[in-house]
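LAB NOTEBOOK - FOLDING QUEUE
OPERATOR: T.R.
BATCH SIZE: 2
PURPOSE: Compare the predicted structure-token outputs for two unrelated chains run back to back under identical settings.
PRIORITY: normal
REVIEWER: second-year student, initials M.K.

ITEM 1
FIELD SEQUENCE / FIELD STRUCTURE:
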Amino acid sequence: MEAARRPRVKICCIGTLEEARQAVSQGASALGLVSQMPSGPGVVSEPEIRAIAARVPPGVASFLLTSRRDPESILRQQRFCRTNTLQLCDRLEPGAHRRLREALPGVALVQVVHVTGPESLEEARRVASEVDALLLDSGNPSLRVKELGGTGRTHDWEVSRRIREEVEVPVWLAGGLNSGNVREAFERVQPFGLDLCSGVRSGGKLDLAELGRFFGEVRQIG
């Protein structure tokens, strides 16, 4: 993967069709639609996800964020919501990725790896061959109430950089990104894409001023 290129941007926690339009108008190449999670912001109902996904313009990826681990349950969810990408926010059962790939040949699979320490490098290596991309976030699926995203925290970008260097699939960087740190994050990790939620939201809504500042910083990259 070439480092000297402007990253793609995914705006997550999209809650309405209007927010989707606002994100795309600023330059988002992907939108995150959050289904039921054990914790964190941005959850919307599956009928709302389906309605928004149906209106996402060509060329923009629609991500269904799911906390489910059983492949048959994930399949039912995706077939109802009809997104073109599945973001798997928790660790899956053995063989689950293969089952999803066989059943959804036209749907991209993105596995989240929560970077809790150097051990996350081995987890990323193991799962990379099963999916189309990795997304490196700052949650913790080992807690009693799992954190599967939307924490607003950064993690150790040096671990993320090593993961990006050692896997053969594109890597998205998430976790605490905002207009103040995005250029440093990109320079240190050199990811394929950037993913953020809380960094462009205030009062539970998309903050258009902050969204504009963020994309202004991204345009200075590359």
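ITEM 2
FIELD SEQUENCE / FIELD STRUCTURE:
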Amino acid sequence: MKRPILLISACLLFVPPLCLAQEEVARRHVSEALALAAGGDTAAALAELYRAVEAAPDLAEAHFQLGRLLIRRASAKDADLSTHEAAQLALLRAVALEPENPVYLAEFVRLGE
């Protein structure tokens, strides 16, 4: 009977560091995406942001930056409705994860205007 408890305890010790490592990986993807976007490489920046969201699905900043970049792409002439919808979903996820963040809320509201 002690083995399952010991195994569960051992697993719980490793979960937080693993989550933190994934969040750090995601933050690096976000940083790289911001640098790529600043350099004008939107496609590569979006790829990095999708990697960030995949690495840490609960990192609000990754969803927020993805939404912001998708908004810029949706503003382009060749953008379709799905890009706008994807931006809305990303911003909505950021707001859901951090509802008290005024920057996320403002960007989401601005998208609806």
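REVIEWER COMMENT (ITEM 2): Residues 6-10 have pLDDT under 50 and may be disordered.
FOLLOW-UP: none requested
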